[in-house]
Prior knowledge:
The complex is a heterodimer of chains A (517) and B (418). Chain A is mainly alpha-helical and 517 residues long.
Amino acid sequence: MKSGRCWLAVVCFASAFKCLLVPSYHSTDFEVHRNWLALTHKLPLSKWYYEDTSEWTLDYPPLFAWFEWLLSHFAAAVDPKIVEVKHLNYESWQCILFQRLSVIGSDLVLAYAIKEYFSSMLQSGKGSSGREKLVTLSVLLLFNTGLLLVDHIHFQYNGMLFGILLLSIAKLKQGSVLCGAFWFAVLLNFKHIYLYVAPAYFVYLLRSYCFEKTGPSNWFPHLSNFLPRNLVKLGAVVVAVFGISFGPFIILGQLDQVLIRLFPFKRGLSHAYWAPNFWALYNFADKLAIRVGSYFGLSLTNVSGQALLTGGLVGDIGHSVLPTVTPFSTIVLTLLSVLPALFKVWCRPTDFNGFLRCIVLCAFGSFLCGWHVHEKAILLVLVPLSLLAVCHSSDAAVFVVLSTTGHVSLFPLLFLQAESLLKIILTLLYLMFSYYAWRSICCGTKEMKDELKLRVYQLPSIYLGGLVIIQFYCIVVHPLAPFADGLPFFPLMLTSVYCALGVVAAWFQCYVTMLKD
Amino acid sequence: MHLCGRIAERIDPTWVALYSSRGMESYNLRLFMRYTVLIADVLIYFPAVCVFCKMFCLKTSSLYKAAVALVMLLQPSLVLIDHGHFQYNCVSLGLTLWAIIGLGSGKDLLGSAAFVLALSYKQMELYHATPFFFYLLGKCLHEETIYRKLLKLSKIGCTVVGTFVLCWLPFLTTKEMAMQVCHRLFPFARGLFEDKVANFWFSASLIFKMRDIISQTRLIQLTVLTTLLMLLPSSWNLVRKPTFNRFLVALVNSSLTFFLFSYQVHEKSILLAALPLTLLLVECPFPGVWFHTVATFSMSPLLQRDGLSLASVAMLVIFVTASLIVFNPLETIWTKVMYTSSCMGMAVLQFGLNFLQPPSRYPDLFPVLISAYCCLHFLVFLAYFHYVQFSLDKPSPMYWSDQTLEDQTTSDVDKKTI
């Protein structure tokens, strides 16, 4: 079958499958987006970042607000009651159908971006291997369990945003640097979480576009190779995009308010459910220390006398035994964790794979060490990693384990019984698909396939086995256990800490791969 | 059902309290019931499909067999009715499929027992009964000696009667009880057709009101006579040459005949015709895919009432896309034209059903139009599959392994000489 047809078949499958998920559980994020549809439709621009009738205030950058404004016109045509600001938690079937279909529709951006990314590979005549990779990547991304769980059940618009990210990467790969930079700037103005990967872009674009390409591994380019014109062009594009986005608010003098809404540092180090990052392990160590201390008769609480982090509440709570973490320290740690990767990109400007790896590592670093990280941010690591996974065996190995860990860490988002079987089956199917796709694409020879079998039966599969046991406990055993009422947070903590171990190990492996390259 | 009820009682007794639980629909209860259908499906229907593909698909690639099994399991009408609307058709259809597998692999006794079980589970399986009867009769008649014929006939007869008695014994203790069971199973009092259904009588009633002109007893006689007459050709053909492929096509013909011409037909009865057509997807991909599209569409008024319109369209897209990849049904320009124009008609009617307000004079305009449209399609399919059954004499490439009678007799002869 021709590659275009295969891609189209995958897109049809994925969209139809997502339609079947329309009646499933949706979280408060559904009301968040409905509220934004309402406030962008009904209120003037000056009130967008001040409106707080609903607790779900606008905390995405202006371009996303404009996107919601565009959608709101269609929403008003479908059911005018959707766009009433005062209709909090409005949930008619028209509203649900409209919003779900808007997510499915916006996923087409991701589908298009995948095709764009591979168009250069297909044109260069790589033939069937390119087609296989296109189909594999399409399935890995369009059927990504994480995206299905977060976007189509929990409800968000990440598919479209990852599409824009992929589009910008595709344009950079094809050599249209300004186009790529443009799309990335647009992306930043849609959702500022992509600041996690901005350092990679910054360093790569500066080095590869604003300096002449001299020779390999030239870590200190001569000033004479500097191309000021390119810098100006790049800067103009980025500034123009930001200008269009933030301009109206700067003119209205509302920039402070917008920034406060965009960066709510008061929310605390960890989310209500700890994202599986380094701070989850840190929190766990702290709690363990309290327990050990109380065993030895020491009562260790923080200044306000609370036993900390027991219920997983959202708030700015400090630690008791280990030093309290401040936002500034998280930024410093994040920067430290990504510096080696950035340095590598600086030294090797022509290595596109190195750039991709740097994106992955920047996302990783920010996920592991950032302030108030959501568990959904693991998708920001997984999507670029999948681009590497379809080409390199070592990345594919990490991808298989990390994607399973990441998807399992998303399970607590869907806590109702009806979705439990669905999320488990989706994760298992995805695991099987990614493993077999990896085998057929990356392992050409029989020796490699045998080597793969050996690697699989080592630590990663033991870890995945542990994941299964822990999830069995959390989903089946804990709700029925007699001591469950006193420890509501325990299964969440267990999932979070165990997944954090996997994520840290994957990060380590990625770094090793990058340094070896 | 008794088993499910016992488990439900353990979990929460208020779910199964005799009168007070009527209309109850709590979240956990719904989840429990949905899980029972899913478990029944996985235990009975799924293995049957997998075994069928493994045993009867000639192409040896196991990837191909798995792909075929997947497409068969994705059959939209069954998934939507069982898991959307909520019924337990997968059990009876699964048992029937096991019966078909039994008959196809030469284990006639097991096959007949399985079919009696299916029949005892849901009386609608009577739609499939005539091909089973005539196929087995034909095989008996094709035995060499009268002694062997009678032996085979009596073996099958005993199995059937024995299984039947085992299932029904508790309910046939008194004559009144037996009559009451029959009355409940065959509700003739309900009338010629219950709701809008893609049935010949419903479509004919659009032109002249049969229910007003002819009395009910006469109507019953008319429908029985017409059904029997329409069944005759395919059954006679099956008795004369009882091969497995012919049996499968005869199943299609029989269930479609019953659907179109019988009394008190539900729109869900199309599932009975959909089962053998699912099995024939490999041999006749184009009619198969087209039929499934029409069958799912014929139930759209029902699905719309259940809020499953989007799900039905999504399932159809998934099924058709999967079939396009695995079978490639739309090869020639003619097939493309026919299928596309048929789908466009369906799309228009579906749009009207969901989004347009019918005129007040004809409030049921769209369901009626849909039923008539589908009935036309089904009549064409009936004619086509009769043609297929009668032209099976001519040698043609078949994907299913065709245990023809000649092969069976030669293999028996070989065994004797050895």
